[in-house]
Amino acid sequence: MTKYVLSLDGGGVRGLASANFLRKLEYEMHKPLLEKFDLVCGSSTGGILAIALSVLKLNGSRLVNIYSSRNLKRIFSSSMPRLVGPKYGGRRKNNVLREYFGALTLNEADTPAIAVSYDLKKRSTRLFKTFEDKHLKAWKVASATSAAPTFFPAVKIEENWYIDGAISSNNPVLIAYAEAKKLWPDENIKVLSIGTGFDNKSFKGNSTKNWGIFSWLRGGIIQVLMESNSEHLIAESLFKENYLRINSELNKVHSDIDNSSDKNLEECLNMGDQWWQEFGSQTLDFLITN
């Protein structure tokens, strides 16, 4: 028997493209997403989507609504310029997450889900699992997996502090597969991996060779780290026909993960549309073939 795994990348507002692709997939399958996938795993914005799918049982359209202009403009806003500390205070993001999840815990999940974060105390990847960390508040886990350094403050859960899972694995496909094998060691595992686009603009060596901390921060080092392609290359080599990756160049989508302008959100939606045009039929075949 085949078990189907959904892996979702981080990427801030660009998660709207992933959500839009999932909305179209759900519509074409004629069944809720969670009736098809046996495990959902995500980092950062993908972690929020994974928890929303599993704990809130959101359908595709309601996943897209998480990325409404109203929500994102609240999340990526600051009451005053910040010269020291993260770009955003985090309070507004947490308020949005509380509005969605309320007091629900991970115990509410029907389908196993994993949100990837990074434990600052242990300096190691932390996997928040709905089937093990049942007592944890869903909104807090969503906040921890998306606490991108320089953008949001670290999040305290119990005695430890956590930041964005993208620091260790923005594309959690290998984590997703490994955890699926732990749950179902004797089953065939198929992984659908959805990205958030990648920037194809090159850096000029002569311009960057003497860059320091602030220059690299201005130049988008966080995005560079997030767009590492190593996990995809490994998964493609190891899993072969049991692996399908949905992703593309950003094209008109802005590379900044916090660009919540109406124009950029429209381009994120368009990128999801383009993915469906390119990968839709292949994805449906992938999910119905054992």
Query: What would the principal axes of the Cα set say about the shape?
Result: globular
Strand count, sense and barrel status of the largest sheet are: 8 strands, mixed
Q: What proportion of the residues form beta strands (DSSP E)?
A: 15-25%
Low-confidence stretches: none
- The percent range for helix content is 40-55%
Structural class: alpha/beta
According to DSSP, the number of beta strands is 8
> Roughly how many Å apart are the termini?
7 Å
Write the layout of secondary structure elements.
Layout: E1 2-8, H1 15-29, E2 39-43, H2 45-55, H3 60-66, H4 69-75, H5 91-101, E3 113-119, E4 124-129, H6 138-145, E5 155-157, E6 160-164, H7 166-169, H8 173-183, E7 188-194, H9 205-208, H10 213-219, H11 221-226, H12 230-239, E8 243-246, H13 262-288
Parallel strand pairs: 1-2, 1-7, 2-3, 7-8
Antiparallel strand pairs: 3-4, 3-6, 5-6
Helix pairs in contact: 1-3, 1-13, 2-6, 4-5, 5-6
